[in-house]
Amino acid sequence: MSTVEVHRQITGDEIAHTFEEEAAPKVDLGVYAFEDWVALVIFWVMALAVFLQFFTRYVLNDSYAWTEEIATYCLIGVVFIGSSMCVRLSRHIQVDLIYRYLPHIVARALSTAIDLIRIAFFGYAIKLVWVYIQIIGDESMTTINLPKDYVYYSVLAGFVLMFLRSVQVAIQHLRQGYSILERPGAYDGFEG
User: Fold this and answer.
1) Which residues make Cβ contacts (< 8 Å) with residue 79, sequence separation at least 6?
2) Any stretches that span the bilayer, and where are they (predicted)?
């Protein structure tokens, strides 16, 4: 068994052509929805507030108190608006092991029941947040003289988006005849 390496001479043109063959993949922004972009904008506002807080505290040695509050409220917006993205993509935590052992008709009925329970939950959450806004929405923020209802309305918008996306996902499950719970491989690309 020989350990001699065999090398062949490569020209400059061949090297240049290897870069041409590896063209960059096309960027497809069509997979992102409205809530993805809103969550991204809120995330960057939060990131700027955190950076400003860090800069003023450790560089200027005099921190702005309002940056922490703004970052906290932005995080609330990112979580609730971004959760609708998880509903749309069926990426929330779920247990799908039991579906492997159930007969198809039982698994399908249970999956449909879960879709309906999710829709009902988000509908009820919308009602609760709306009532909460009516009760406490006029309070001012601690460090900024703005009402907190902006924060609560972002939570309400997140639940409305989750409700709409859950209805959309339930319709998709009914049309295709299965859900991610029944066939997780179809959603991950592992099922042919």
Assistant:
1) 158
2) 37-58, 70-89, 109-130, 150-171
Q: Report whether 191 contacts 183 (CB < 8 A).
A: yes
Give the tens place of pLDDT for each residue, 21-39: 556 678 778 888 999 999 9
What is the pLDDT at residue 127?
97
Q: Give the integer Cα–Cα distance in Å for 69 and 139.
A: 14
> Rounded to whole angstroms, how far apart are CA atoms 93 and 86?
10
Q: For residue range 141-184, list pLDDT tens digits in order.
A: 888 888 888 889 999 999 999 999 999 999 999 999 888 888 77
Q: Six-digit token pair at 35?
A: 């809530």
- Whether this prediction's pTM lies above 0.70 is answered by yes
Sole residue written with tokens 């309906």: 116
CA distance 12 to 161: 55
Q: How far is CA 9 from CA 3, 15, 17, 140, in A?
A: 19, 11, 15, 73
Distance CA 109, CA 158 (A): 28
Length of the chain in terms of residues written: 192
Please tell me the distance from the alpha carbon of residue 94 to that of residue 97, in angstroms, as a whole number.
9
Supply the pLDDT for residue 147: 84
Q: Which two tokens stand for residue 129?
A: 């947040």
* Distance from chain centroid for Cα 30: 15
